[in-house]
Each structure stands twice: as structure tokens, then as C-alpha cells.
Specification:
The chain has about 110 residues and is mostly helical. The protein has one domain. The protein has four helices and two strands. It has a two-stranded parallel ribbon with strand order 1-2. It is globular. The two termini are about 20 Å apart.
Length: about 110
């Protein structure tokens, strides 16, 4: 998991693309993409930095599955909401328990 905080309006796409690379490297080390047999989902809203073509290309090249939440909120897209909650849970567990590969079942 990786995140960025940005002051003001208008998040540029470059920090988002750097964040995607960072998230994959934190999880799997210095690799070119998500190793075969693993699935990482890229959950974001529909902001321009996240839906930009360059961001999509980077996500695809890293083997990430993009999931965008609708503007109307998580209740309109329960699968994305559930994915986010499971990802947050797995991240939290992995930082408090000495578990090498945390897996969360849907």
C-alpha cells in the first residue's frame, strides 16, 4: 500500500504513477511487475490523475487491476468498497503481525 498527501487542488498524475511503482516495490521488492500468481488492485476515485492514460499504462505495465469508485460513494459500488476494506485490513495486519504474505478472502 502506498499513499500521497497533496496540498491544494489538482493532483498531478506523476505522483500517482510514482506511488503505483512504490506500492509494487514495497510489496514484492525491486521487480518490473506484480509476480505471476498475485493480484494487486489499484483502488481510486475518478480524479483526472488516476484516470489519465499515462497512469493507466503504468498500472497495466505493473500488472495492477484498476478499480474506480463512482462519485456517488461506496454504497453504489460495493465490490470496490469491499476491496478497499480488505486491502486496508491486510495492510494493517501485515504491519502488526510477522506474516510474510497476508491473504484476505472475499
Amino acid at each position: 500500500m502506498a499513499w500521497r498527501a497533496w496540498e491544494g487542488k489538482g493532483l498531478p498524475g506523476e505522483p500517482v504513477r510514482e506511488m503505483l511503482i512504490e506500492a509494487v516495490e514495497k510489496r514484492f521488492g525491486a521487480v518490473e511487475a506484480v509476480p505471476e500468481g498475485h493480484l494487486l488492485e489499484f483502488l481510486s476515485d475518478n480524479g483526472g490523475a488516476y484516470t489519465a492514460q499515462d497512469t493507466g499504462r503504468i498500472a497495466s505495465s505493473l500488472g495492477l487491476k484498476p478499480i474506480n469508485t463512482p462519485v456517488s460513494g461506496a454504497s453504489a459500488h460495493p465490490a470496490a468498497h469491499r476491496t478497499f476494506l480488505h486491502s486496508a485490513l491486510a495492510y494493517s495486519i501485515s504491519h502488526f503481525l510477522p506474516v510474510e504474505d497476508v491473504r484476505v478472502q472475499s
